[in-house]
């Protein structure tokens, strides 16, 4: 897949531009992501090509990852109003949180 999904885009549901590069080549905007509950509280977040139906998985989460994502959303709210040393501290915390989320997602994938 030739698109990069940030956690922010998925969490805020910002439309993203995508191309079905594994099947029909259709170009489209993804405005809503689908979620399927799998076993042991694991959820799959994905979207389908509206032309051919090909599924593109964005990521898998479990309860601990969803809690970290909620923490990330709160951190982004704080960053909007921060400046100077406080903003630098929040950016450092954001970096650590992103790495932790990625590692956990890679583990359950």
Question: Would you kindly provide a written description of the structure presented here, covering whatever features stand out?
Answer:
It comes from Lysinibacillus mangiferihumi. This is Transglycosylase. There is one protein chain. With 109 residues, this protein is of the alpha+beta class. It has 2 domains: 55 residues, no CATH class; 46 residues. α2 runs antiparallel to α3. It is globular and about 50 Å long.
List the helices and strands and how they pair.
Layout lengths: L6 H6 L3 E4 L7 E4 L3 E4 L5 E6 L6 E7 L1 H19 L2 H25 L1
Antiparallel strand pairs: 1-2, 3-4, 4-5
Helix pairs in contact: 2-3
Protein name: Transglycosylase
Write a brief caption for the model:
This is Transglycosylase. The chain is of the alpha+beta class and 109 residues long. The protein is 46% helix and 23% strand.
Cα-based radius of gyration, to the nearest Å: 16 Å
**Which spans of ≥5 residues are poorly predicted at pLDDT below 50?**
1-9
Strand content: 15-25%
The coarse overall form would be globular
Structural descriptors:
alpha+beta; 5 strands; disordered N terminus; three-stranded antiparallel beta sheet; two-stranded antiparallel sheet; 2 domains; 109 residues; globular; 23% strand
């Amino acid at each position: 897949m030739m698109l990069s999904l940030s956690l922010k885009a998925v969490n805020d549901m910002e439309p993203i531009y995508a191309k079905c590069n594994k099947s029909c080549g259709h170009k489209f905007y993804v405005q809503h992501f689908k979620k399927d509950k799998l076993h042991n509280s694991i959820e799959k977040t994905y979207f389908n090509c509206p032309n051919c139906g090909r599924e593109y998985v964005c990521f898998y989460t479990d309860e601990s990852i969803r809690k970290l994502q909620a923490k990330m959303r709160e951190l982004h709210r704080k960053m909007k109003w921060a400046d100077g040393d406080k903003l630098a501290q929040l950016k450092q915390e954001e970096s650590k949180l992103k790495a932790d989320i990625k590692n956990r997602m890679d583990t359950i994938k």
